[in-house]
Amino acid sequence: MTAPEAAASETAAATATEAPAATTAVKITTGRRSARELLDAFEAEQLKADLPEIYVGDTVKVGVRIREGNKERIQPYEGVVIAKRHGGLNETITVRRIFQGIGVERVFMLHSPQVASIQVERRGKVRRAKLFYLRDRVGKATRVKQRFDR
Questions:
Q1: Which residues make Cβ contacts (< 8 Å) with residue 146, sequence separation at least 6?
Q2: What b/e string do you get for 89-127 counting C-beta neighbours within 10 Å, with b at 16 or more?
Q3: Which pLDDT tens digit goes with each residue over 92-144?
Q4: 135 contacts 108 by C-beta, under 8 angstroms
Q5: Which string of DSSP letters, residue by residue, matches 50-95?
Q6: C or N: which end of the chain has fewer Cβ atoms within 10 Å?
Q7: DSSP string spanning 33-55?
Q8: Strand order in the sheet with 115-122
Q9: What is the CATH number of the domain that holds 73?
């Protein structure tokens, strides 16, 4: 056997002994991620961590970013949460308030950059998931009892 043949047989023997060890090792990842994993990772980055626990019936004050020209200010919007929808990044709340005798409802995406802050002013005691019946009520009938245990 010549020297090059001996070297070739030694490397072949070395790779033959290493090959079974590589197959029994941990699954090798290629570094590629599926589209769903990429979307989940992006959504996790966008979630706000400092949101309070919000329940239907709570009176909340939402700080909304308003852009006027090149200035930006935060306008408070206070009202009763009458609905919560979706979850995760797409979570929304519907807030109802009476403005100059007219009921006004706004839907806020909780994790949106337009929502600067959310404060729970008062906890409400309700027994329903959606308070759409408040739309038909007028005056003092629209009040929600206060809850003290949360």
A1: 122, 123, 124, 125
A2: bebebbbbeeeeeeeeeeebebbbeebbebebeebbebe
A3: 999 999 999 999 999 999 999 999 999 999 999 999 999 999 999 999 999 99
A4: no
A5: -PPP--TT-EEEEEEEEEETTEEEEEEEEEEEEEEE--GGG-EEEE
A6: N
A7: --HHHHHHHHHHHH--S-PPP--
A8: 102-109, 92-99, 71-85, 59-68, 115-122
A9: 2.30.30.790
* 74 beta partners: 65
Give 23-41 pLDDT, tens digit per residue.
Answer: 566 655 557 889 999 999 9
| Number of domains the chain contains | 2
Question: What would the two tokens of residue 74 be?
Answer: 């935060």
> Which structure tokens are listed for 16?
């033959």
In this prediction the pTM is 0.74
Going by C-beta distance under 8 Å and a sequence separation of 6 or more, which residues neighbour residue 96?
Answer: 79, 80, 82, 103, 104, 105, 131, 134, 135
Q: Please report, as a single letter, which amino acid is at residue 53.
A: E
